[in-house]
Design brief:
Elements lengths: L12 H35 L16 H8 L5 E6 L5 H14 L5 E6 L5 H10 L10 E5 L4 E4 L1 H4 E4 L10 E5 L1 H14 L4 E6 L15 H8 L4 E6 L11 E5 L7 H12 L3 E5 L15 H6 L3 E3 L3 E3 L12 E4 L1 E2 L6 H6 L3 E4 L4 E3 L7 E8 L5 E3 L15 E2 L3 E8 L24 E5 L15 H12 L22 H30 L1
Parallel strand pairs: 1-2, 7-8, 7-9, 9-10, 10-21
Antiparallel strand pairs: 1-3, 3-4, 5-6, 11-16, 12-18, 13-15, 14-17, 17-20, 18-19, 20-21
Length: 513
C-alpha cells in the first residue's frame, strides 16, 4: 500500500503537509475563480444594463422621442423627487425617472423623503422657493441656470365625475413622460415659448368656465412648459418674443392692418394656428372679410360651407357632428394614424389646399371626411340637407398645414447649410382648422382631440420631440371575489396545512411499525 493511501495518522509529516497544501491551494483557486466570476457577472450587468416593463399598459416604456431627448443632453440636469412611502404617483415617477437616468450620465436623480430627511428637504425646498404637501409628490428639474417644478396634479389626468356623488376623483392617466421630456426640452433650449391667443373678435378665451373656453388647452400646454397670454391684435404689431399666435373661433372680422401685421410676422418666420368655424350667421360671416383672400395668398382655400358626413355621424347626433379617421401624411397626425385614433368634429367648414406653386412652400391636408361626406353650401336650408352638384363633394379636407422652407445659404456668405442644433428654422409655419369646438373644454376630451391640438401646437413650435407622447393608464390591479369564492379561499387556506399535518402523522406511524 502506497503512503498516499494510508490513513492520515499513519502518513509521514511531509505527505500530510503536501496534501494540506494541495487542499488549501484548491480552495484558494476556487475562491479566486468565484470572485472572478462574480466580478465578470457584475461587469456585464453594468455594461449591458437592461430594464423590463411588465405592466400591461407599458407605463414605464419610453418612446423613441424621449430617448433622443435624454440621449442628446450635453449639460448636467439634476432631478429631485420629493415624496414619501406609499405615494403611488411618487413611486411611478421614480421608476420612470430611473429609466431616464439609465439613458444619460448627464441626468442625476435624487429622492428626498421630507419626513425622514427633514433638514435636507427644508434646505432644498428653500433653494427652490417652493413647499411640499405631505402625501404627494413634487418633481424639480434643475440645470443650474433654470428649473422647472411639477406638482402631483401636473403628472396625472383625473376623472372628476365621482366628486358629484361625494367620492374622490380617480386617476385616469399618468403624464409623467410628456411632462419630464417637455422639461428637458425646455431646459436644453434655454427658453420658454410664448403663445398669444388673440382677443377682440369673439374668440374663445383661456379663462372661460362655460365649457366653450380653452382651459383644457391651457392645462394641456402647461405640461410642456409654455407661457400663454391673451393679446388684442387690433392696432398693434406682433411682439418680438412671440413664438406662436393662436386665433381660436373668431366671430368677427379682422381688419386689413391686422392682417398686414400677421403677414409681416409670418414673413419673419412666425407661426400661426387658425381655428375657424363655419359662418352660420351674419356676425360670423368671415367669407365677406378679407381673411379668405389673405389665406388664399398662402395656398389655403376657406370654404363657405358646413361639412356633413352621414356615414361617420355619431349616434344620436346630426350629420354635422362626425368622427374623422382619414389622415394625410404629416407629423401632426402621424401618431393618430398609427394608433388608428379618431377625432370628433362638430360644425366644421372645409379647408383645402389650393394649387399655389410658391417656391419652397409646402401644403398638406391633414384631415378629411369619408367619401360620403360633403360641404353643404345651402346654409339657409339647415338642418335638412342633401348632397347637390353645387356642394363640395367628399372626401372633404378639414385642415391644412403650410410650411415655408427657408432657402439654403449661398456658398459665399459664410453661413452653414442648416440651422444650429436647438434653433428653429427661418421658414414660417401655419395650420388652419375648419373647426374650433374640438379644442374647447367640452370636447377636448373626446377621442384624439387633445392629441390633435397638442401635436399641432408642438409642430408649429418645432417641438417635434413631444409629438405623440400620450398619457398612459396607470396600473390598477384588483382582485374581486364573491362571498362564495371568498369562503372557498378561506377553506382551502386552512385545509392545506391540515392535510400536511395528517400526511406527516400517517408517515410517522407507518415508520414506527
Amino acid at each position: 500500500m502506497s503512503e498516499s493511501n494510508l490513513p492520515p495518522s499513519q502518513q509521514s509529516p511531509p505527505s500530510m503537509a503536501r496534501r494540506r497544501t494541495v487542499e488549501a491551494s484548491t480552495l484558494g483557486v476556487g475562491l479566486v475563480l468565484a470572485v472572478l466570476l462574480l466580478g465578470l457577472v457584475n461587469y456585464f450587468a453594468w455594461k449591458y444594463y437592461k430594464q423590463f416593463d411588465w405592466t400591461s399598459s407599458e407605463i414605464y416604456t419610453l418612446s423613441e422621442k424621449t430617448k433622443n431627448v435624454v440621449g442628446s443632453l450635453t449639460q448636467p440636469v439634476e432631478v429631485v423627487v420629493f415624496t414619501g412611502p406609499g405615494v403611488a404617483m411618487g413611486e411611478q415617477s421614480l421608476e420612470l425617472l430611473e429609466r431616464y437616468r439609465a439613458l444619460s450620465p448627464q441626468l442625476r436623480l435624487r429622492e428626498v423623503d421630507p419626513i425622514k430627511n427633514l433638514s435636507e428637504a427644508e434646505r432644498l425646498l428653500e433653494r427652490y422657493a417652493t413647499h411640499y404637501q405631505e402625501g404627494t409628490v413634487k418633481v424639480v428639474f434643475d440645470n443650474g441656470a433654470s428649473r422647472r417644478i411639477f406638482e402631483e396634479d401636473d403628472l396625472a389626468e383625473y376623472d372628476y365625475s365621482p366628486v358629484q356623488m361625494g367620492g374622490p376623483p380617480t386617476v385616469t392617466g399618468f403624464k409623467g413622460e410628456a411632462v419630464f421630456t417637455g422639461a428637458l426640452v425646455e431646459l436644453a433650449s434655454g427658453e420658454r415659448p410664448t403663445i398669444l391667443f388673440t382677443v377682440g373678435h369673439g374668440e374663445k378665451k383661456l379663462d372661460d368656465f362655460s365649457g366653450n373656453g380653452l382651459r383644457g388647452v391651457q392645462e394641456l400646454l402647461g405640461r410642456d412648459n409654455v407661457t400663454m397670454e391673451e393679446w388684442a391684435s387690433l392696432g398693434k404689431q406682433v411682439p418680438e418674443a412671440t413664438s406662436l399666435i393662436v386665433v381660436a373661433g373668431p366671430r368677427g372680422n379682422f381688419s386689413a392692418p391686422e392682417l398686414e401685421a400677421f403677414t409681416a410676422y409670418l414673413d419673419g418666420g412666425g407661426r400661426m394656428l387658425w381655428l375657424l368655424d363655419p359662418a352660420l350667421s351674419a356676425i360670423a360671416d368671415l367669407q365677406a372679410a378679407p381673411l379668405g383672400d389673405w389665406l388664399a395668398g398662402y395656398g389655403i382655400e376657406l370654404g363657405e360651407d358646413l361639412v356633413v358626413d352621414p356615414d361617420q355621424a355619431l349616434p344620436f347626433f346630426g350629420a354635422d357632428t362626425f368622427f374623422v379617421n382619414a389622415y394625410g401624411s404629416h407629423p401632426v397626425i402621424l401618431p393618430l394614424a398609427e394608433t388608428q385614433t379618431a377625432v370628433i368634429l362638430a360644425l366644421a367648414r372645409s379647408v383645402t389646399a389650393s394649387n399655389d406653386e410658391t417656391p419652397g412652400r409646402t401644403r398638406t391636408e391633414l384631415l378629411e371626411t369619408s367619401s360620403g361626406g360633403w360641404g353643404e353650401t345651402s346654409l339657409e336650408r339647415l338642418p335638412e340637407v342633401e348632397a347637390e352638384e353645387t356642394d363640395l363633394l367628399g372626401p372633404v379636407s378639414l385642415a391644412v398645414a403650410v410650411e415655408e422652407i427657408a432657402p439654403e445659404a449661398g456658398p459665399d456668405d459664410g453661413s452653414s447649410d442648416s440651422a444650429p442644433a436647438g434653433e428653429k428654422s427661418a421658414g414660417m409655419r401655419m395650420i388652419v382648422f375648419g373647426d374650433s369646438d374640438f379644442a374647447a373644454d367640452n370636447q377636448i376630451g373626446n377621442q384624439g382631440n387633445a392629441a390633435l391640438i397638442d401635436n399641432a401646437i408642438n409642430w408649429l413650435l418645432e417641438r417635434d420631440t413631444l409629438l405623440g407622447i400620450p398619457p398612459k393608464k396607470p396600473e390598477q390591479v384588483r382582485l374581486s371575489l364573491t362571498r362564495q369564492q371568498l369562503w372557498r379561499t378561506y377553506l382551502l387556506t386552512a385545509l392545506l396545512p391540515l392535510l400536511a399535518i395528517v400526511a406527516g402523522m400517517v408517515v410517522y406511524f407507518k415508520r414506527r411499525r
